[in-house]
Amino acid sequence: MLRLQALRSRLRFRPSPPQVLLLGFIFIILAGAHLLSRPISIAEGGAISYIDALFMSASATCVTGLTVLTTGIHFSTFGQIVIIVLAQIGGLGFMTMATLFALLFRKRISFRERLVLQESLNYGSTEGVVRMIRKVLLYALVIELTGAVLLSSYFMLEMPVGQALYFGLFHSISFFNNAGFDLFSQFPDRASSLIHYVEDPFVNIVSMLLIFFGGIGFIVISELISFPKQRKFSLHSKVVLSMTGLLTVFGALVLFALEFSNPQTLQPLNGTGKALGALFQSVTARSAGLSTIDPGMLREVSQFFLVLLMFIGAGPGSTGGGIRVTTFAILIGAMVAMIRGREDVVLFRYRIAKRQIHQAIMFAMLAFFIICVGTMLLSITESGSFLSILFEVTSAYCTVGMSTGLTGHVSDPGKLILIALMFIGRLGPVTLAFALNTKSRKELYRFPEGKITIG
What is the reported pTM? Predict the structure, then answer.
């Protein structure tokens, strides 16, 4: 009897929080691919392969924005809605959306579900996580609706009211979730993304604000809203906001200097257009994937600089990707401390724990390793230049979505490589490792300490 109970307990599969996230994302991607491959999702007279539908579904769910098909041309309105719903689910997290329905139906959130929510949001503890989910949903709704109203009112000046409302809502959701999908290719006289609006201050500013709020993370948004009352920020918010500001300004200045005389990018624009063009690429490169300048027309040095910005990415717990600005800040802090001969890494007069320093190094090295492997594999399947392949791989893994044009022409094996990169980048390599590791054991002993020469 005892053996039978032991066997039943072994056969009973109780997924851990990382496994729930892994299986949930796989299910959503496959469900999205099934819907996108149906005739109802395809534009009249068109046809798409399942691998292309799978790629688009993975890109939307992982809020990347890389495309092998043109969203506004190859998909019907139903297909476009499927894509933006996938981006909304992927941006907020499928567990967040599941919690929304649970709250609507007054269902109790179990402790196990709270653990999954904590994992999906990168939240510090299970305490207050449901309250945080309510804030996430409220903030997302308010920001997206505000963006939709602003964009729709502007689009009404150049298109019918119904289309303007649809475009405003679609692009507000896409921009806030850093998904990078757009519908402007429907117009025969316009390029995709926001290239048509490169000199338009209104569209640029609204879009950058949506990208900014989506990229700093919901914890920081919550503290920004409560700041007038509490008059203080946590260390996390200080680091995210300061690094986001510094990287945005520094990136804009570098891109402005590199592209100022480029006749295919900034040179033909007026003064405002040059400033907006450089600033927008700096903002979008770390998370959103939109562009007001064709990345393929940038100088190679500018493309490589964007690779660095994409690698750094957005804030933790946000809709963006990359190694995260907090990881980058800790790495910079560790380097400065080492150069100055100090043992502690200090940010805003707070000492950073050794464990977090080790985690930052691990995240950065894992990302670097995965991007290197992805670049090598894609170099085997594709015939593009090394820099363009590195650009696409970094964009896929860091869930950015910027492209020099290579993604639209990749082979089927190349598409599978990019799908895997987007999936790992969105889920996180550490979460993926924990999900695949079914056995964990505590170390019963430690090896003696050894010394090696470094440098």
Answer: 0.88
